[in-house]
Structure formats: structure tokens, C-alpha cells
Amino acid sequence: MSTATAAMWTELLKARRSRLPWVTAAAFTIAAGFGGLIMFILQDVRRARALGLLGTKAALTGGTADWPAYFALLAQITAVGGAVLFGVIVIWTFGREFSQGTAKDLLALPTPRTTIVAAKFAVTTGWSLALAIQTYLLGLVIGAALGLPGWSAAVAATGLGKLLLTAALTIAVVTPFAFAASAGRGYLAGIGALFLAVFLAQVIALLGYGPYFPWSVPALVTDIAGPGRQPPGPLGYGLVAIVGIAGTLGTALWWKHADQDR
Questions:
Q1: I need a labelling partner for 127 at 20 to 30 A (CA). Which of 17, 37, 164, 174 fits?
Q2: Short name of one Pfam family for this protein (predicted)?
């Protein structure tokens, strides 16, 4: 077994023995179910009020209960929820070595530090994509149970493509949190960077500069700001790619050259 494969299996074993995969899977399951609830309400608002799902003065406007709308909502859930949960996955994967005092033991192994970093990123990427695919599959089941109209193979393929694009963009912009957790030698710095990025993404998007702020781009791809708003262009996608590359390389270089004294 090569060192890369061994490092990969080690990271997978750490994740499997943790409760975090179950927590993140449960969170995305609830999110997909919430999206289904929104579709159920939009199907018949009067029925929803009669069942107590809406207050007498509450209203939902501008939405339609069909497959394209549900797929768009699932993509938005992936963007918003992924910004937090994908970030938490990355922060936990890199920060746990320092919080649990296993960093020096890990680096004492005859495995290149960059290989360890690559294995960690491979596991976090696969983990995050698995959550996105889980959301899509749950959406298929929930949408079919609701009898949503507008189904076609093309609509389903388009929905899957947008959801995976959103997930990939979100995975890219959370890579700097790995550097923050590593350089901060624990979870705190990574969580702080995550909260700051999520806050700025909301504020800058509201100001109209979201297409030029990498952490706002994944949500804007899903048309979360509504039709007619400026979508991300090549510059926005390019900035996301730069952030992803910088976060990955920066983390690898830090692990390779930093003194690990604890």
C-alpha cells in the first residue's frame, strides 16, 4: 500500500469513528425535508394554514411548487448550508490534530506532510460531495412523494448539474479555513474565519458586489438573490478558483514548513 493510500484510509477511519458524519448527514436530511415542506405549502397555501403550517397573517409569494423550483431550492440549501457545514468539516479535519494533541505523532510518521494534507482534502471533498448527492437523492424521493409537476430527465439533469456546481464552488471557498485551523492550531481560528466569511458574504451580496466576492458566488449561482440580479461572471468563477488553489497550497506549505512544537 502506498503512503498516499495509507494516509487516505487513515483519514477515512478518523471520520468514520467520529459522530460528525452522522451530524452533517442529519443536517442535510433535515434541510432537504424543509425544502419539501416549502413545496408542500406552496402547493396549497390554504391547506397549509388549515394544518397550522402557516399563521393566519403569513404569506408565501412568488414561489411555485414544481420540480425546477425544488431543484433550485435544493441548490440554495447546498450553498447556504454548505458554506457552514462544509467549512466545519474542513476545520474539524485539520484542527482536530492540534486540539487532540496528535499533530506531532502524525508528522512523526514516514509520510510526507503534503501527502497528509492531500489526503485530508481528498476526504473532506468526497465527504462534502456525498452530502450534496444525498440532498439531491432525498429531493427526488420527497418531490415524487409530493407529486410535483414539471418532471423530465432534462430538468433532473439540470438540477443535478447546478447542485454539483454549487457544491464544488462551496468546497473551493472553504479551503482557506483549513489554513486558519492549521495556523491557529485548533478549531477556534477556523471557526472565526468561517463566521467572518459567512457574514461578509451576506453583507457584500446585499450591497450588490457579490459576483466579485468569492464567498458570495456559490449562493448567487443558484439565483438566490432572485431573477434579474447580476449573476457571477468569469471573474467571479476565477476568484473562487484562486481562493480554492490558494487555500489548498497555503495549507500544504504551512504543514510542510511550520515548526510543530506541540
A1: 37
A2: ABC2_membrane_4
Between the two ends of the chain, the Cα-to-Cα distance in Å is: 29
How many CB atoms lie under 10 A from the CB of residue 105? 10
Sign of CA dihedral 8, 9, 13, 16: positive
Residue 121: CA count within 13 A, CB half-sphere? 26
User: Which has the closest alpha carbon to 40: 29, 26, 52?
Assistant: 52
**Type of residue numbered 17:** R
- What cell was used for 37? 415542506
Residue 29 makes CB contacts below 8 A (sequence gap 6+) with 134, 138
Residues 117-137, mean pLDDT to the nearest whole number: 95
- The set of cell numbers assigned to 135 is 440532498
Judge contact between 113 and 255, C-beta under 8 A.
yes
pLDDT value at residue 90: 96
Q: Which among 259, 241, 238, 239 has a CA at the least distance from the CA of 249? A: 241
Please tell me the pTM assigned to this model: 0.89
> Is the alpha carbon torsion for 207, 175, 81, 193 positive or negative?
negative
Number of other CB atoms surrounding residue 141 within 10 Å: 11
